[in-house]
Amino acid sequence: MKTKRSIILLFVLISTCFTLSAFSQDYTRWDLPEGAKMRLGKGSIYGNITFSPDSSLLAVASTIGIWIYDAHTGKELNLLSNKSFYISSIAFSPDGKTLASCSSAEFYLWDVATGKLKLAISAQSRFHITSVAFSPDGKTLATCSGYNIQLWDVSTGALKTTFAGHKSGADSIAFSPDGTILASGGDEGEETTMKLWDVATGELKTTYILAENRASYDANIAFSPDGNTIAICGRWNSFGITLWDVATNTLKGTLIGHIGGVNSVAFTPDSRTLASAGTDDTVCLWDVATGSYKTTLIAHTDDVQSVAFSPDGTTLASGSWDGTIILWDAEKLEPRTTITDHTVGFIEIAFSPHGNTIVSGSRDKTVRLWDTTTGKNINTLLGHVGSVESVTFSPDGYTIASSGGRFSDFIFFGDDYTIRLWDVISGTQKVTFFGHERRAYYVTYSPDGRFLASCGHDDNVILWDVKTGTPLWTITGPENETIAVTFSPDGQTLAVGFKTEIQLRDIDSKKVINTFYNNMIPISRLVYSPDGNKLVSAVGDNLIRIWNLTTGQEMTFHTGHTNHLISLAFSPDGKSLVTAGYKGDSSIRFWEPDTGMLKFTLNASPYIISNLVFNPNGKTFATSGHDGTILLWDYESIFNPPPRDTDVNGDGVVDIHDLVVVAANFGQTGPNPADVNGDGIVNISDLIIVAAEIEDAAAAPLAFTQEMNSLTSRTEVQKWLTQAQQLNITDTTSQRGIRFLKQLLIALTPKKTVLLPNYPNPFNPETWIPYQLSEPSDVSIQIYASDGHLIRSFDIGQQHAGLYQQKGRAAYWDGKNEIGEPVASGVYFYTLTAGQYTATRKMLIRK
Predict the structure, then answer these.
(1) 3-class secondary structure, 7
(2) Which residues contact 790 (CB under 8 A, 6 or more apart)?
(3) Sheet holding 451-456: strands in order across?
(4) Among 164, 272, 308, 571, which is most exposed with the fewest C-beta within 10 angstroms?
(5) Which residues in 701-822 belong to E strands, given as ranges?
């Protein structure tokens, strides 16, 4: 009995671990807005990263919340979010039970164990809170916003005191290890200063000017764990890293080593070494006592945003603008684990023609490919030297076109003027187009894939021959005001939007065939309806104008967005026109294109929705944001579509149950839900249609479930597949259905022959003996008493490969011997012989 209990306990523990592991891996579905079904990307690493006091957890401040990772494995454990703007700073309480964060003018206290929000407090300031820090006793939380530094009671959320801080704003704060001093770094007009405050009295003890004639732009400050040294740095490299001696209240030295600014500094627990995060993509280590340079860690490909040492001193974490967090072995100085998919703001996205992949262009100079089934980044294409402003798939799905943008948010030269074509399969660059004199912010393929049109900040539209890479013609708008360009669905017309007019040009003749004037209201977006009969533009800040190209009529309506309209798209069926707002307007609005009537509204990210695109099948749409995420939305479920004919049993889902119902009705005539195609008879054609829809929904090889085995057998599926293949049908739907049947056949085919435990066990008076066959075999089962005597023999005969596990298919023993007498209580053995395979298991009869 003790052994049995141990086995049960072990099973429970394994099941629990599996459940937690499976949940933790599904981070793409954590904390989504209503209506969204998946998130691609984890958001930008916006604020700092920090370890829990016991070194077991790593918390990361991002644009969508706080990510909690296992500090040893890098595995995602939780996402703490309340749908606020970016998290600019985070800090663990000394006991590790609470996590503080700040966003905009509010700060929050989170329960680390449960992930629940405990307290939310507004600083009642028009400035954003830039930094939070716990006092060493955990009773006080310090925040800085604008000119003020405030101390709050952690238990009640009450404001305790306010320090009149830096004249131009405080960027960073830190308590001394004994809690008596609060250090702050910030700006005083054109000067960067550090201030030391007496926590008990609120008295300003020291002000030190770190740099003159230039602000630090995001100063970062840290106390050494021994309390002897303060390190402060700034994003601008005007003063390097300054070390301040706390005891003597004097400057110890300045560390100069990074080529550029320094975003973050962190001390080792023994206070001997300082790590710095540079805008030159590196992490530098310094000797604190001597101020000498020790070494440089090179692994990131973009600005390093934050560094942190684990309290046990074994790990150094560095988070970068390139979307990675590296956990370094602090002794060997080698990467131990890399956390990925923290991406910076997306500018544009596009679905592949088959809808299973999304390509994104972003401010970090990358072109990324995402799997829409798993939510994982499957490839990253590097080559642009500036932000990637636009991306699009070729109609055949084998090529991606991308256009370059600004080199830096802070340096207004060195922009990327190129348009690049990439091979989707290999991820290699195929060709580079040169033609724009300034960065190109939009590219689009013609429907036949022969041409590429680009729109640039040089106010030119260029039509390119894709095969040769040469410009066929260039259009310069009146008064240099080119805004948008798009191809008509039939590929014969190019619509070019200028500031106050739209020209329709014939592709072959290059001539203007129609012009629409916009009454001096600037055009920001331009899109054709799927049937090509309507041309729609976003005009002004919040207006939509629709031109009917058949009747010549036009209609204008106000979208009601509270900020500048940024995105515009038609659903593939043409029934919905969708708009998305700019920063501060999180709404996505669905409109009736013929009447301008609002049909539905969704709320998404509070960030800028930079792009909105539909999957070609019309079932899903995606939005990209400046928060560094892509959200996938279920368009079908939003409008509650009517039941599908393929949902034969009417349970709201098309799955294997519907296949079984169709098969059970084979040969039936007259009205019947299983007659999916409505031809008056239920047959294999109906089953293929249902299978096609299951395959389309699954979009991945099937995993075996016991439910499949209980509903159908491998033999039945093989028969269905044979009948389907005999029809010799080649249409897309039928091929999808046949493909699903092949997947189902594989799922129902064991990889090896196995004898399984009987059930129930112990039993009285009957039991079932399950098994599985990897190939057709002649099967027999023998039952023996504990002394080896043969009690009963079953010659089952030739069996197909498959699963024989359910009561209707497993071998059955009624607990009697060969002459029909019930056997006595005790231990018995059963042996399966299947071809060359033989296996024996034990069972128990208890009466």
Answers:
(1) helix
(2) 782, 783, 784
(3) 440-445, 451-456, 460-465, 470-476
(4) 164
(5) 754-755, 767-769, 771-773, 777-785, 790-799, 802-804, 811-813
End-to-end alpha-carbon separation of the chain, Å? Answer: 18
Dihedral over alpha carbons 650, 653, 659, 662 (to 10 degrees): 20
Residue 16 pLDDT: 34
Cβ neighbours of residue 230 under 8 Å, at least 6 residues apart?
174, 183, 194, 196, 221, 222, 223, 224, 243, 244, 246
Q: What is the CA radius of gyration of the chain?
A: 33
Residue type, 660: V
Using the 8-state DSSP alphabet, how is residue 542 labeled? T
pTM above 0.85, yes or no: no
Distances (CA, A) of 476 to 432, 459, 498, 525: 22, 6, 9, 18
* Cβ neighbours, 10 Å, residue 115: 17
Q: Using CA atoms, how far apart are residues 248 and 254, in angstroms rounded to an integer?
A: 16
CA 731, 736, 742, 748 torsion-angle sign: negative
Q: For residue 248, how far is the Cα from the chain centroid?
A: 50
Nearest alpha-carbon partner for 321 in 59, 43, 50, 28: 43
d(CA 518, CA 546): 11
How far is C-alpha 115 from the geometric centre of its chain's CA atoms? 20
The two three-digit tokens of residue 634, written as one number: 């279920």
Cα 446 to Cα 463: distance, rounded to the nearest angstrom: 10
Rounded-to-integer distance, Cα 675 and Cα 682, Å: 5
Contacts for 201 with CB less than 8 Å, ≥ 6 apart: none
* pLDDT of the residue at 390: 94
- Given a cut of 90, whether residue 738 has pLDDT beyond it is no
Q: Dihedral (C-alpha) 760, 766, 771, 776: value to the nearest 10 degrees?
A: -170
Helix (H, G, I), strand (E, B) or coil at 824: coil
Q: CA 555 to CA 573: how far, in whole Å?
A: 20
* Residues whose CB falls within 8 Å of the CB of residue 449, separated by 6 or more in sequence, listed in order: 394, 395, 396, 466
Q: Which tokens belong to 774?
A: 């990897």
pLDDT over 70 (residue 6) = no
The Cα 825–Cα 832 span in angstroms is 22
Q: List strands edge to edge, sheet with 57-62.
A: 45-51, 57-62, 66-70, 76-80
Contacts of 115 (CB under 8 A, 6+ apart): 68, 78, 80
DSSP class of residue 838?
E
3-state secondary structure of 749: coil
Mean pLDDT rounded to a whole number for the chain:
86
pLDDT band at 226 (very low <50, low <70, confident <90, very high): very high
Q: Residue 173 has what pLDDT?
A: 93
Cα–Cα distance measured from residue 71 to residue 58, given in angstroms and rounded to the nearest whole number: 5
**Burial class of 201 by CB neighbour count within 10 A (0 to 12, 13 to 18, 19+):** exposed
Contact (CB, 8 A) for 161 and 119: no
Alpha carbon 302 to its chain's center: 20
Listed in sequence order, the residues at least 6 apart from 140 whose beta carbon sits closer than 8 Å to its beta carbon are 134, 151, 152, 153, 154, 160, 199
Per the listing, tokens 């310069």 go with: 476
| pLDDT tier, 801 (very low <50, low <70, confident <90, very high otherwise) | confident
Ordered strands of the 241-245 beta sheet: 220-223, 229-233, 241-245, 250-255
Identity of residue 61: A
Q: How many other C-beta atoms are found inside a 10 Å radius of the C-beta of residue 488?
A: 18
For residue 802, pLDDT beyond 90 = no
The pLDDT of residue 68: 97
* 8 A C-beta contact, residue 97 and residue 112: yes
**Backbone torsions φ then ψ of 835, nearest 5 degrees:** 65, -120
Would you give the DSSP letter of residue 28? Answer: G
